[in-house]
Amino acid sequence: MTKEIRKLIYCDLGFIDYKVAWDLQKKIHQQRVEDKIDDVLFLLEHPHTYTLGKTADKKNLVGDEKYLSENKISVYDIDRGGDITYHGPGQIVGYPIINLTKWQRDTHKYLRSLEDVIINVCKDYALAGQRINGLTGVWIDDRKIAAIGIKVSRWITMHGFAFNINTDLKLFNGIIPCGITDKEVTSLKHELGYEVHLIEVKEKIINHFSNQFNYDQIEFKSKEDLLSLIS
Question: Packing angle between helix 107-124 and helix 198-212, nearest 10 degrees?
């Protein structure tokens, strides 16, 4: 019996508004549900944004209206799991929209695999990324370098991970990240002591993601080419 070739479409959305990317995710998700498109991975950056997941405690948004206005931070209640997190420039956000039925129907395995992707990228920079029991995400010691929050509907994934690369960590001061009060956040830049090229990190993410999820082919598409596929 011939093995099915696993294909992944990769699209770099660049710097994009949160709501615009969220709406695009929904469109691609529906296309994936209808099997009109292969699995997709978006990598991108957002402007300053706080997002609150379905189980978020509003008290974890500690920045008041003045703080939000002065820092030009948008706030969204969204449909992923998890609490509150920050997105912003210098952070690589990944949105995989993939069919778990064609991989493994196991959301916990999927979460751990996303963590493995980030852990392996950290390893490329000689950093020991790790898990902390009972918490989702990737940590350097007890400093969180990547947050993960997903939605799975009809075994198709949405949302994903936020990996701090050259992120301005001061913007986390307006929230209690993921509702965790006794841990700090960090970034590749903070850990390494120098600014890291985002393109370089994205290449590493794509490589480890394709290996982790057993893709045979990766097709690189621009946002415009992708939109023409689903229009």
Answer: 140
Q: What is the spatial distance between Cα 53 and Cα 78, in angstroms, rounded to a whole number?
A: 5
Q: How many residues does the chain have?
A: 231
Catalytic residue, candidates 178, 201, 206, 226: 178
Which CATH number fits the domain that encloses residue 175?
Answer: 3.30.930.10
Residue 182: which domain range?
7-230
Residue-level pLDDT, tens digit, the chain, 231 residues: 567 899 999 999 999 999 999 999 999 999 999 999 999 999 999 999 999 888 888 888 888 899 899 999 999 888 887 788 999 999 999 999 999 999 999 999 999 999 999 999 999 999 999 999 988 999 999 999 999 999 999 999 999 999 999 999 999 888 776 666 667 899 999 999 999 999 999 999 999 999 999 999 999 999 899 888 777
- The answer to whether residue 21 is domain-embedded is yes
Model pTM score: 0.95
Distance CA 25, CA 109 (A): 22
Does residue 11 have an active-site annotation?
A: no
Is residue 1 included in any domain, yes or no? no
25 found inside a domain: yes
* Number of domains making up the chain: 1
